[in-house]
Write a structure and sequence with these properties.
338 residues, two-stranded antiparallel sheet, 8 helices
Length: 338
């Protein structure tokens, strides 16, 4: 199989892990390591030959470029919300593999039970409000007994988000930075194993929760099998009244939200002061510009006057010369007449 070309550097850099250093080098090397690690989580009893696999949240294909030639025999689909990435993949994925764009909310344009396996890396790490709807949608898309593999930020990533020491009683599903734009990394979501088993386990049998510490992912890898049940998003969100960590984790989430509000208010005050200073500077510049504009207008008027002055002088001199010649001729005739 011919190797896929490399995407433009700007598309390769869309992935957070590829944002430092040369994006194309990281895209290739990090993608290869991740793909090799991901394959080790494919259940050995699932024969993918001739089956369909979905890369949900494919980005610019850092996994796909390695997986399509990994010998699984599967046909890969790739889906993402980023149009430039999807357009590039659609043009460069070798047949029969395909790529398509999905909306921020379900559904996907594929029938029930279409896939034998779906993987979603660094996707549920950002889904704040739509996670349950997407889990139900991926459940719909899987064939009976199909496998979903997803990564989540667990204790291994706690240090990056001021959650040290990690406390399962404080972390259920913790949303940080809701509404943060994707250009700034987007919102981040942390998960504890107990919470994933309690909530995701209503739609899937949790076959394995592999912590991210010491792994190439740096995130926990959750391996799940589709249950026969068809829970709704609300049922996945429902709190377990017999689990005290539901309450303690919500209390901690509220605390972290209050902390973020303090930071945002402080930044708002800083922006307000900066805006006030900027407004004063703008007003000063506008006054200076008005003075300069007046000086420029006067200079242009003086230049036009200076350009007109020589022409006027020449006109007068020409008239004087013509008059002098006429007078000379008259004087000459008068002298001859004498």
């Amino acid at each position: 199989m011919t190797e896929m070309p490399l995407p433009p550097a700007a598309l390769a850099a869309h992935v957070a892990a590829c944002s430092d250093g040369d994006p194309l080098t990281l895209y290739i090397e990090h993608g290869r390591l991740l793909a090799e690690s991901l394959i080790t989580h494919f259940p050995s009893d699932v024969d993918l030959a001739g089956k369909r696999v979905l890369d949900f949240g494919c980005g610019s294909g850092r996994f796909l470029r390695h997986l399509v030639g990994a010998g699984t025999g599967a046909v890969f689909d790739a889906a993402d919300i980023d149009r430039p990435c999807v357009d590039w993949l659609a043009d460069h994925l070798p047949a029969p593999h395909t790529a398509f764009r999905n909306d921020p909310v379900p559904p996907l344009s594929r029938p029930d039970g279409y896939y034998a396996l779906i993987y979603a890396t660094s996707v549920f790490t950002h889904l704040t409000d739509t996670w349950a709807a997407w889990l139900c949608e991926l459940h719909r898309l899987l064939a009976d007994g199909g496998v979903l593999i997803a990564t989540v930020i667990d204790e291994a990533g706690g240090r990056d988000f001021a959650e040290v020491p990690w406390d399962d009683a404080r972390i259920g599903m913790l949303v940080l930075g809701p509404g943060r734009p994707w250009a700034a990394g987007g919102p981040m979501v942390l998960h504890s194993e107990w919470w994933v088993r309690a909530h995701w386990g209503r739609a899937f049998e949790i076959a394995g929760f592999h912590p991210g510490a010491g792994t190439v992912f740096g995130q926990a890898v959750v391996v799940m099998r589709k249950r026969a049940a068809h829970p709704t998003p609300d049922e996945l969100k429902r709190l377990d009244p017999g689990e005290p960590r539901e309450i303690s984790s919500l209390a901690h989430a509220l605390h972290r939200s209050a902390q973020e509000n303090v930071v945002l208010n402080r930044r708002h005050d800083e922006y307000s002061l900066a805006y006030r200073d900027e407004a004063a500077r703008r007003e000063l510049l506008e006054r200076e510009n008005a003075v300069l504009a007046a000086r420029l207008a006067q200079a242009m008027a003086d230049l036009r006057a200076a350009r007109r002055a020589p022409a006027a002088a020449l006109t007068v001199l020409s008239a004087v010369r013509d008059r002098a010649l006429m007078l000379r001729r008259r004087l000459g005739r008068a002298t001859q007449a004498r």
